[in-house]
Amino acid sequence: MTAPRHMQSDYMHFAKLETAAKYNLASSGVADRALGDLGVCLADLELHGANAYGWPPLVEAIAQRFAVPTACVVTAAGTSFANHLALAALVAPGDEVLVEDPTYELLLSTLGYLQAKVRAFQRRPEAAWRLDPDEVAARLTPDTRLVVLTNLHNPSSALADHATIQAIAQAADKVGAKVLIDEVYLELMFRDGKARTAFRHDGAIVVTSSLTKAYGLSGLRCGWILAPAEAAQRMWRLNDLFAVKPPHIAERLSVIALGKLEPLRARANATLDENRAAYRELLGAHGGLDQVIFDQGTTVFPRLRTGDGDAFSERLTARFETTVVPGRFFGRPDHIRVGLGGDPALTRTGLERVAEALGEPFSHANEKEGPAPSGVGG
């Protein structure tokens, strides 16, 4: 018998309604930028354009950025909807899908909505949350149709290198499965200005991403999927059932934004570097936390040595005007996810309040350094 269809995302409900505190450390994105940061003038804005299946200048800009044919690009409303479209095109009800654990709750909720059969493989904190191709291979079955990953990993910010991604794709191919990778946080790694992706033209690896998390441009909802042309066409036609056509004014602004990513990325990374240094100073050696802190990404995912994430989060919000994400949303109820993308002054104060809420003295014996960045997939 088919399981009841999942009809909601508890995490998204939390993110929308329960994170509005003075010191918001729950967001995984970089703080919002203003329209003025894009240097837009009124002549750049039009309400209507020929965008039946994506506005050609936007599709072309994304295709050129990743050196792929335009037929392989599908635009979508942010990474969340890009993931939805990609999963809907790649997964049928009852299909077995192998997903990393911990993972982003909305991926699991979407797979539940699509009535997939979900299996998990482990990312382990004692291994610095790294992707282990052998772990993935051991969990694959002849029924597996898709492997779902995030890179950078949400919630830990761990980075998987090219060799690891390709080894997983090779293992998946042996059972007839494809790999889908959410690469939205990978955007922060392109400090040399060169965009990279794990997408493969043979269809073994399909990727999703957007400008939402790394650049403070969530309001544009500029997301995309890179997929082989045949799969991309299926996704466009599926979108006829969901969003029909995107707001054209956002497409125009997205093309402008794609031409200004270098200064936006530099500003974002300066913010993250400052906030990560504050985290290390205030919480990196805290006796109440067991954690891996990476040199990349927008989030840290520590384990609480005592208590659970929900109770801690509730107390932190009620008494300290600060929000974090309870680890329950990632299948780890004794963890919390802490965002580092906000205003540095507000973030520092929020981190001080997390330390105060933990209520324990610092100890320099508990921080484990994550491995330095070693490359990106593709």
Per-chain topology:
Blueprint: H1 10-17, E1 23-24, H2 56-66, E2 73-77, H3 78-90, E3 96-101, H4 105-113, E4 117-122, H5 133-139, E5 144-150, H6 162-174, E6 178-182, E7 205-210, E8 222-226, H7 229-242, H8 248-258, H9 261-282, E9 289-293, E10 299-300, E11 303-304, H10 309-320, E12 322-323, E13 325-326, E14 336-339, H11 344-358, E15 367-369
Helix pairs in contact: 2-8, 3-4, 3-7, 5-6, 9-11, 10-11
- Radius of gyration (Å): 20 Å
Q: What is the count of β-strands?
A: 15
* Main beta sheet: 7 strands, mixed
Strand content: 15-25%
Number of helices: 11
Reading the helices and strands in chain order gives HEHEHEHEHEHEEEHHHEEEHEEEHE
What can you see in these coordinates?
The chain is an alpha/beta fold and 378 residues long. It folds into two domains: 120 residues, Aspartate Aminotransferase, domain 1 (Alpha-Beta Complex), CATH 3.90.1150.10; 220 residues, Aspartate Aminotransferase, domain 2 (3-Layer(aba) Sandwich). Helix content is 36%, strand content 16%. The strands form four sheets. The protein has a seven-stranded mixed sheet, with helices on both faces. The protein has a three-stranded mixed sheet with strand order 11-9-15, with no helix packed on it. Helix 3 packs across helix 4, helix 3 crosses helix 7 and helix 5 runs parallel beside helix 6.
